[in-house]
Amino acid sequence: MNLYAYILRRLLYVIPVLLGVCLVIFVLFNLVAPDPAFILLGKHATHQQIAELHHELGMDKPFIAQYFDTVKTAFTFDFGYSWASKQNIWQMIKAGAGPSLSVTGPLFVISNIFAISLALLVAFYRGKLIDKFVLVLSIAGMSIPSLAVVLFGQWFFAYKLGLFEISGYENGFPNFIPYVILPVILYVFISFGGDTRFYRTVILDEAYQDYVRTARSKGLSELKVMFKHVLKNSMIPILTQIIIQIPYLILGLIFAESFFSIPGLGAMTINAINNSDFPVIKAMTILSAVAFILFGVITDVLYTVVDPRMKLK
Amino acid sequence: MNTEKILEVKDLVVEFRTERGVVKAVNGVNFEVHKGKTLGIVGESGSGKSVSALAIMGLIPNPPGRVASGQILYRGKSLVNIDPSEMRKIRGNKIAMIFQEPMTSLNPVFTIGNQIEEVIELHQPHLSASERAAKAVDMLRLVGIPSPEKRVKEYPHQLSGGMRQRVMIAIALSCEPDILIADEPTTALDVTIQAQILELMNKLQKELGMGIILITHDLGVVAETCDHVAVMYCGQIVESADVETLFNHPSHPYTKGLMDSIPDFDSTSGHKKERLQTIEGMVPSLFNLPTGCNFQDRCSKVTEACRGMNGDPTLKPAKGDDHFVACFNPLENI
Amino acid sequence: MSTEVKKSNSLLKAALLKIVSEKVSLIALIIVAIYFGTALLTSLNLVASTWNTSIGASYLAPGADALFGTDIFGRSVATRVIKATETAVAIGVVVSIIAIVIGTTLGMLAGYFGGIIDEIIVWFYTTFSSIPSIMLLVAIAFILGKGTTTVFLSLGLTSWVGLCRIVRAEVMKHKEREYIAAANAIGATHSRKLIKHILPNISHLLIINFTQTFDSAVKAEVVLSFLGLGVVGRPSWGTMIDDSKLELARGVWWQLAAATLAMFVIVLAFNILGDALRDALDPKLKGK
Fold first, then answer.
1. pLDDT at C3
2. pTM (2 decimals)?
3. Ordered domains of chain A (ranges, CATH)
4. ipTM, 2 decimals?
């Protein structure tokens, strides 16, 4: 079976999952959620007003039709209009993606390079003092609530010391740079513990395999064993972990964006929650799930390309 | 023996630090390897045979393990406390090793050719890239892999277990080592493949004249391939002899027990036997060895002497040339 | 069968012994016990019952009058942090129970029966895990509305997939083992085999999972509080941290510090305990 046939099969498997995701979203937003009439029309709306609203929102259709409307949006990205701002949601998302990526992009690159280098270092010195020290630091880092880091960081470094912009944003490179430095630093700190620990485990998993003993028995130096044999094998799970983070990049950073007034998608989601803006939350949920599923496919395909053992099933 | 002695292990002690204290996985072991000859080390799992081999290779994981005392002399040169970079020049070059698990011992993400060339590049840097590639193909042909030109480009998962073990042998032999250590090389393989691999090792030994240390729990394999045998139990050698003496006159009750548990060999009559016998009891834990002989609780010949009043048994000459046994009541030879 | 169950029990006992024998994990265990004890005492109103009473001026700095200062209403921050232990422990425990019940039930059914049941359950959790958990959490919490039940349910419903996967894989392995064949031979029913034979043998996975779910639930409560979807009517570390966003600019740092510290210590203790348990119960992961 060739690669293209595999990709096609893998894409076909996306369909039941996507239908399932839409089902979950449909159940949550169309069945469980309170009637939007209460939110949009207030308590004193007449029956006629409510009926008109239901018709406008397509809520008078049978459930199955409403479900297909939900499925349709997963393909067309035609999410309708925000209740709060009356703007086209897809336009809002396109406008917010840039600012979000200006924070999450650099964060993604820096935090992964940092964590992988650190993990390689401690895997090389496994069991020694530096390994234990980094492990303790990672676990401690993982235990600090991220909201506290953002709050404290903004207050201390931007407000007290005045080293960075407290908040604000300007569109376009390089104008945004001064505004994103501090959020990126804070989030590198927030993610370093979990990332380092994960990558260390992945690398150590390989460091105890039989082929490593073979490599040593050839007379290779420990450096060569680590960086040629172990690293190439651990690249597979590392790559998976990196790619799987990408869909989260477009979700933005909920805390950072609202505290630093970055007009990204994280801030948009917060606003939508505060305004009970159903369609926006629904749109973000669908969008993130579609991105997540798509990158799942990409990961699987890359896996088969990188790992010679993977037979295309 | 009148052959050239290339490796000598003297009073080797290997310790491991564990949560339950320090254990001696190898405790005072002596043996020699001669050019062109095969030494078999026999014992159950945990008897210290693999640890002895790793100690020779300088591959005891440290921590928790270390060579606590004793000597390992390769052509008179001590390998204990040798400079690590010095040891790397010997490892894979003069002393090579193959392992029990052919399925996992090759790196899954590099081609066969790459893995053979790697060791050639390391120890024979004067060869050019094309010479290395040609040598890798030659090595695969030498170990009997069909269409080697095609195979060098393949990955380990594309080969069967037997083929992978041949590749391991090709890697080990590509620098024409003095000594090949084979740690249960055929255990994980089918019986027919086992015979092929052993035959291949014998043939290559004749061609290249290397000394072999063959580690196994299978006396049948020993009978077919070895010149000299050391039987290990709980980190010590309990009996040592040339292969014929050992099979004709086993002196240690443990050796006798091992022989009686070979399906079609009866040490008493030499005929195929009716029933398999097993050795009663279990190997004692290294954390909790008895005083006196370690085999006392499983031995049919046990007497008060074995329980420690005369100290631990040591290797003493037994019937036949070059035959030693560590037993207070060695078997009468029949 | 009894030997298998005994093995599992003695494994737990050995794990506990190992945790107690190591200094770091013993301290972690003691800290967890102190937090749980505190939660019990506050729920009985024996400790920190004055959490809603003003003891002085608004925003008193930490000092002799109030160890960790006071909040906007002049209530003692220290007392409120202690009272909030009850909320945190309740969230951690209830969320873990919801996640463990869903994850274990579905995972056992999928792994044991296989076939179409397995396919449906795998599809179901693949679907669930295809929605990034933060968005699913937000969506569920948003739709259920503000309140303690929402916190329990939204976190519980988003925390079961990992355990479900592990349990499914483990049950598939156990199904083939001899003691199940033995149980088959004496004609045990499916439910009996699942509950009396297989469940005890995967219990260590549930215990390891509990420490992880507890940790992430306590941390996620902060996110929900920030979104305005957190607990109401009682103090929680999440709401205290969230409240402090408006106070920091006025130099009021003690509410943030106290709540963060309280949370950091228990999350760290659970992290360490989880690692120790995993080392002791799942030897193949040792030293990682």
1. 44
2. 0.82
3. 3-76 (no CATH), 89-306 (1.10.3720.10)
4. 0.85
